[in-house]
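Render this sequence as a predicted structure.
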Amino acid sequence: MARTNLHELASRLLNELSTASVNATFEGKLRDVAAEAGLNSVRTAEAVKLLEELGRIEVVQRGRRGRDTIIAIASTEPVKLEDAEASLPSRQGKRSSFTYDEIGRAMVDRLIELARDDGLRTAQVEAFDSAAKQLRERVVALESENDQARSREDELRIRLRSAEEALLRSEENLRRATGGSTPPERAVTVSDEDSKAVLNILRSRGR
């Protein structure tokens, strides 16, 4: 005897596949069509196998790794009980090895997919961590450069103030030495390049 009402389930699945097909070809998620027909995953596999053996359908592509199932529909003739019983001997001999083989391949494929996804996520995390580390190092370097620039600016301001005070004292001394007359052209010698630039600016303002 064929499994209870398998011929009816196969006929219902065949009808749903035909309804969802275009030009006698179904392409989509088999589980959705099977759910409409009232089949669970185990009975769906049995029904598809029976329909294949009876020549009602041809599975062109199985829905693995996120792909859609593609099934060519050769006939929409309902499956009879005697059809299911007639196919039972050939199906019975291959059922165990076929089922375990399919399960084994599915498990291996899933494990490979999980390992690939895990490796990809690990690589992405490492890349993000490296990029974040580089950004933190760049921020630290910029902050250090900014602090150095501020220190340099403060130093230049101090030198400028000292140079201005020195010039004022020099002018005062020159006025005293010349009896209050206009002091001669100043010639101040400094060693620091920044101080020289400051003195040049001050001289240009006094002319």
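Summary. The CA atoms of residues 24 and 73 lie 5 Å apart. The first helix runs from residue 6 to 19.
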